[in-house]
Here is the input.
Amino acid sequence: MKKKLILFILLPLAPLMIAAESLYTNEQNGSKQKKSSYEKSASKIDLDIDYGKKPWAFDIEAATLDNENYRSANWTGDYMQLVFMSLKPGEVINLEVHEDHDQFIRIEQGKATVWMGKTEDDLSYKKEVKDDWAIMIPAGYWHKIKNAGDVDLKLYTLYGPPEHPKGTSNKTYEKAKEAHEHNH
Here is the structure.
């Protein structure tokens, strides 16, 4: 009777024990576990396509970290735009102002210096930011952001309304600068 009782108690725990043993073995061997389908979802995003004006749910942190383009507008609607950016050490988002819209920036990786001010010649607001920081840029404020770290600065930004043409994808800072000058 005791053997049946023990078997009755342990049998439902067997899958959990097997999974725990597998995890322990993988950790001991230094191997990584396979990503879940949830974790893989971001890597399936084509960062050269604008998915705008359609519903879209995804892992924004993974997508931001996966992005290798200097600038990639990946969702452009009528009133808002999502843009992923990756700045190499020392690269900048040049001094600019958006008169008719606010901007939100979220840093996912790296360190940056942010300057803002009401005039081009008076950037009196200066802040050092890093992973998990947000930057709020009011309409009419001049701003500049520089990658102040030694790794790529990975961020995403939301503009309301959109700032860049639908589907914008600039692989490098130089291409982004050239396109920006052409479009403005």
Observations:
- Confidence is low (pLDDT under 50) at residues 5-11, 13-40.
- The radius of gyration is 23 Å.
- The helical segments are 2-10, 14-29, 37-40, 60-66, 173-183.
